[in-house]
Automatic annotation (TrEMBL):
It comes from Nocardioides bruguierae. Residues 1-199 are annotated as: Phosphopantothenoylcysteine decarboxylase. The keyword Lyase applies. Residues 195-409 form the DNA/pantothenate metabolism flavoprotein C-terminal domain. Residues 16-186 form the Flavoprotein domain. GO terms for cellular component: phosphopantothenoylcysteine decarboxylase complex. Residues 200-417 are annotated as: Phosphopantothenate--cysteine ligase. This is Coenzyme A biosynthesis bifunctional protein CoaBC. In the C-terminal section; belongs to the PPC synthetase family. CTP binds at D288, K298, P316, D317, I318, L319, F336, K354, K358. Its cofactor is FMN; Mg(2+). The keyword Flavoprotein applies. It catalyses: N-[(R)-4-phosphopantothenoyl]-L-cysteine + H(+) = (R)-4'-phosphopantetheine + CO2; (R)-4'-phosphopantothenate + L-cysteine + CTP = N-[(R)-4-phosphopantothenoyl]-L-cysteine + CMP + diphosphate + H(+).
Length: 417
C-alpha cells in the first residue's frame, strides 16, 4: 500500500496584497473585499484607477486600508511605486476588472499605476471581471481572458444576476466574500495554476425526494466540501461546473453553478456537464431511495392518526454510471463515502469495497460516526486510489482536503494524457 499524508498548504501564508480597483459600477463592492483582507491580518495597498475614483473616492480607500491612496505613477517618485508595489506583493487582485482593464492587461499596457504594477508583479494575480454580458461575451474579451489564463493569471468567471439599470445576465461581480475565499485558495498555492485548460465537474449538497409539497426524503449534507472543491479548482485555473443540490451557500467566485433538487436532476446535470470534463468529483450526497409516487397535495393522516405506508424505489447510481460509462477517454472520476464501520468491516475496509464496486479512480472516505463532518467547516478523510494509493488528510479546513483531492486527480489526469 502506498500511503502518504496531505498537509495544510497555508503555512506561512503571504500577507502583502495589492488590491486594484478599476472603473466599474461594482467598484463600491471592493470596499467589502478590502475589509475582508484587512480583518484577516493582510497588509493591503489600494491602487484604484482614475475612473474608479469617480465611483468611490480616495478618502474611503484610505480610511479602510489605513494607508495613503496613490493612483499616479508620478506620486512619491523617489519610491518608484510602479515597480516597488508589484515586486513586493504576495498577491495582486483586481476587483472589479473591467473590459478595458482586461484589454490593457492583456496587451501589457503601462499607462497608469495599476497596469504598471501588474507588469512588475511576480506573484499570483487574480482578476475578478465585472461588465455587461455583451462585453463579457465579445470575441475581443473572450480572447483577452484566454490569453491571460494561458499566462497563469487567475481570471474568475463573473456571476449572473442584476447588472446596471434593468439589465440582468452574466457579468456581475462575484460576491466579495467569495472573491476573498478564492484569493485565500490562491495564496494557499502561490504560483500554482496546474488545472488551467481543464474542465472539472463537482457535485455538492444533498438531494431531496418529495413525498408531497411539504415533505421529502433527504440527508444532512451542507454542500460545504463540494463548494470548497469548486473554489480550489477555480483558484488552480480550471473551468468549473458546480452542480448544487439544495444548498444555502453563496455561489463560489469563478464557478458556473447548476442548481438541482432531486437525484434524477442531479444525474442529468452531472452527465450533461461531464461530456467534456477532464474530471468529475461526486461530493454530493444523493438520496438512495425515492417514493414511487408523488402526491400533489399534502398527505393527511386518517382519523385514527395513521397514514398509508410509503412505497420506495431505488434511485440511479450516478457514481457507478459515470465510472463505467465515461463520456471522455482518460476522465478521472472521484466518489465520496460517508461510513461509520460495522460488524462487516472497518471504515477503510468498507471504503475499499465501495471503491471496487463503483469502479471509480478515487474514493474519499469520511468517518461520520456521531454526525461528524456534516455542516462543519473542517474535515478529515482518507483518499483511496484504485491503484492502491492511500492519502490521509488530517482534520483541517475543508479547502485543505479539497486541494489534496485535486492533487490526486491531477496525478491521474497527467498520466492519462
Amino acid at each position: 500500500m502506498n500511503e502518504t499524508r496531505a498537509s495544510d498548504p497555508v503555512a506561512d501564508a503571504p500577507t502583502r496584497v495589492v488590491l486594484g480597483v478599476s472603473g466599474g459600477i461594482a467598484a463600491y463592492k471592493a470596499a467589502e473585499l478590502l475589509r475582508r483582507f484587512t480583518e484577516s491580518g493582510h497588509d493591503v495597498t489600494i491602487v484604484p484607477t482614475a475612473a474608479a475614483l469617480e465611483f468611490v473616492g480616495a478618502p474611503t480607500w484610505a480610511a479602510l486600508s489605513g494607508k495613503p491612496v496613490h493612483t499616479r505613477v508620478f506620486e512619491d517618485v523617489h519610491e518608484v511605486p510602479h515597480v516597488r508595489l508589484g515586486r513586493e506583493a504576495d498577491l495582486v487582485v483586481v476587483a472589479p476588472a473591467t473590459a478595458d482593464f482586461l484589454a490593457r492587461a492583456t496587451h501589457g499596457r503601462a499607462d497608469d499605476l495599476l497596469t504598471s504594477t501588474l507588469l512588475t508583479a511576480r506573484c499570483p494575480v487574480v482578476l475578478a471581471p465585472a461588465m455587461h454580458t455583451e462585453m463579457w461575451e465579445h470575441p475581443a474579451t473572450v480572447a483577452n481572458v484566454a490569453t491571460l489564463r494561458e499566462r497563469g493569471v487567475v481570471v474568475l468567471e463573473p456571476a449572473s444576476g442584476r447588472l446596471t439599470g434593468a439589465d440582468t445576465g452574466k457579468g456581475r461581480l462575484p460576491d466579495p466574500v467569495e472573491i476573498f475565499e478564492a484569493c485565500v485558495d490562491v495564496l494557499a498555492r502561490p504560483g500554482v495554476a496546474d488545472l488551467a485548460g481543464r474542465h472539472v465537474v463537482v457535485s455538492a449538497g444533498g438531494t431531496r425526494e418529495h413525498l408531497d409539497p411539504v415533505r421529502f426524503l433527504g440527508n444532512a449534507s451542507s454542500g460545504k466540501q463540494g463548494y470548497a472543491l469548486a473554489r480550489a479548482a477555480a483558484a488552480r485555473g480550471a473551468r468549473v461546473t458546480l452542480v448544487a443540490a439544495n444548498t444555502s451557500l453563496p455561489d463560489p467566485a469563478g464557478v458556473d453553478v447548476v442548481p438541482v433538487v432531486s437525484t434524477e436532476q442531479l444525474r442529468d446535470a452531472v452527465l450533461t456537464a461531464a461530456k467534456d470534463a477532464d474530471a468529475v468529483v461526486m461530493a454530493a450526497a444523493p438520496a438512495d431511495f425515492r417514493p414511487t409516487s408523488h402526491s400533489g397535495v399534502k398527505i393527511k393522516k386518517r382519523a385514527d392518526g395513521t397514514v398509508d405506508p410509503v412505497a420506495l424505489e431505488q434511485n440511479p447510481d450516478i457514481l457507478a454510471t459515470l465510472a463505467h460509462d465515461r463520456p471522455r477517454a482518460g476522465q478521472v472520476v472521484v466518489g465520496f463515502a460517508a461510513e461509520t464501520g460495522d460488524e462487516t468491516g472497518s471504515v477503510l475496509e468498507l471504503g475499499r469495497a465501495k471503491l471496487a464496486r463503483k469502479g471509480c479512480d478515487l474514493l474519499v472516505v469520511n468517518d461520520v460516526a456521531g454526525g461528524a463532518v456534516f455542516g462543519a467547516d473542517e474535515n478529515e478523510a482518507v483518499i483511496l486510489g484504485a491503484d492502491g494509493a492511500e492519502t490521509a488528510v488530517p482534520r483541517a479546513a475543508k479547502r485543505v482536503l479539497a486541494h489534496a483531492i485535486w492533487d490526486q486527480v491531477l496525478l491521474r489526469t497527467t498520466h492519462a494524457r
